Amino acid sequence: MKPGRPVRRVPRASSIIAFAAVLLAMSRVDAFDETKYPELNGQWVRAHPRSQWDPSKPRGLRQQAPLTAEYQAIFEANLKALHSGNLGADPQAYCLPSGMPRMMIAYEPMEIIVTAETTYIRVDHLNDFRRIFTDGRAWPVQVKPSFDGYSIGRWIDEDGDGRFDVLEVETRGFKGPRTLDADGLPLHRDNRTVVKERIYLDKANRDLLHDEITTIDHAYTRPWTVTRDYNRERNPLWPEYLCTENNSHISIGREFYFRGGDGELMPAYKDQPPPDLRYFEQPAKEER
Amino acid sequence: MVERYPIGAVALAAALAATIAGARAWDEAKYPDLKGQWLGVGAGPDAAWDPERPAGRGQLAPLTPEYQALLEATLARAAAGGRPPEPCIPPGMPRSMIVYQPMEIIVTPPITYMVLGHMAEFRRIFTDGRKWSAAIEPAHAGFSTGAWEDTDGDGRYDTLAVETRGMKGPRTFDSSGIPLHRDNQTVVKERISLDRTDANLLHDEITTIDNALTRPWTVTRSYRRERNAEWTELVCPESNRTVAIGTETYAVSADGYLTPTRQRQPPPDLRHFPNRK
């Protein structure tokens, strides 16, 4: 180096790149890179006004559900009971959660919260809440049964553009009673249902979400796949939905009754006997 | 002075830096780590609202005379005949923050969510700077707006300040029945922060302003973190077989019959059953 001509030390190219790489690595530790995930913010409202399980077919027997003979008979009995006014086949009548897969009908608005480790799905109707673990965990040895089941998911970049576009989910570990819809499409009482889903935004309309749902269950002769759709509301209101506060159905033993406008008990079908009041000391009050 | 920087390296570094900026759509590191499962400290079914004081009258709740009389009547009824079973109606704010069952907190820039296992309560605390809407549809959980604060100036948020309005009733502070005003004009202010020395301990300083009280009432509730959480589904209607008919609350017995919930409770009115015996 010649004297009298100060030269500041210039970082080498490799040092600059290394420093930037460290910064990038740090950001990956600290930041959730939401740009890699589809933008699912907002409120999702079911696109199908009717709520039969397969929205592409009419309700009831015309769903052509691939039921086993035993469960087809149960379904027909459920339909008959429903037409006579008895809601016994629908667990929602007494405010039990829809559970999976029925909760994905999304009777009330749905919110999806995406984080790196977990995608959460909250449906206000009956307060169904799903945690879909996307942290790469294995299935636990034992799953405590629940209506919503235990879900493991995986984000997939199907079109190779460097961003995830499909969430694949498998859900197991259920308890019952659950049905697929309000008509009483049954699931097997062994609760060994497996639900597989592919959740993705529509390619042409980013405010339309699809859920391709395949149900594998011993009440069915084959896996049954339906696709349900949801429209996005970007400026949502979230009214509180409380089944237990507003439910007009009353279940006592094996019978269902209605709560009338005056708050008193009413029959749900013609000639329904009143409930047995054997545990009360005095006879029922006469008309006031 | 001659400074020669390797142009290619600078360009690459700039590109990487731009990538960082793009990737940092939201910087998790700026927020406190609230992941995991939070268990209410001293949050048994009979937990008193102020955990520093005994339950019931021992709380020294600053009630107006009218609402003190209501509390006395509730305590007297409970002493005489036990407490009636509670229906599957969420406790609402502020009682939700007793956290009877495990809680999860999900922090995102626009909203912090509180997922409460008890009665499936779900709070959305909007931190997107929104204003109070002109009309809030009343809800047990109310409508909450919040602001993250960096109180110690270290460049990271440490406190979530929340205000909640728009509640509906009936609500009480705790299971002893300390009442909130029937006008439901309650305002709840909270300051939520991790303990300075124990990052697995969370505090919520809760101030309730309510017309049943003579002054704002501040208590601090705490929550202990479980990092390896197991989440159990709790479905109140599955286990709670209470039935509200008319103005009475009954229970359904294990063998499927309607049963009274207090001594000499009249049975339901069966006027709508023409074939009653």
What does this structure look like?
- The complex is a heterodimer of chains A (288) and B (277).
- Chain A is of the alpha+beta class and 288 residues long.
- Chain A is built from three helices and twelve strands, in the order H-E-H-E-E-E-E-E-E-E-E-H-E-E-E.
- Chain A has helices spanning 13-30, 69-83, 243-246, and strands at 43-46, 110-114, 118-123, 128-133, 150-156, 166-172, 194-201, 208-216, 224-233, 249-252, 255-259, 265-267.
- Chain A has a nine-stranded mixed sheet, with no helix packed on it. In chain A, strands 10-11-12 form a three-stranded antiparallel sheet, with no helix packed on it.
- In chain A, a hairpin with a 7-residue loop joins strand 8 (208-216) and strand 9.
- Chain A starts with 12 loop residues before the first helix and ends in a 21-residue tail after the last strand.
- The model of chain A is unreliable at 1-11 and 19-30 (pLDDT under 50).
- Chain B has two domains: 37-226, Lipocalin (Beta Barrel); 241-277, no CATH class.
- Helix content of chain B is 14%, strand content 26%.
- In chain B, strands 1-9-8-7-6-5-4-3-2 form a nine-stranded mixed sheet, with no helix packed on it. Chain B has a three-stranded antiparallel sheet with strand order 10-11-12, with no helix packed on it.
- The interface between A and B is large, with 80 and 74 residues.
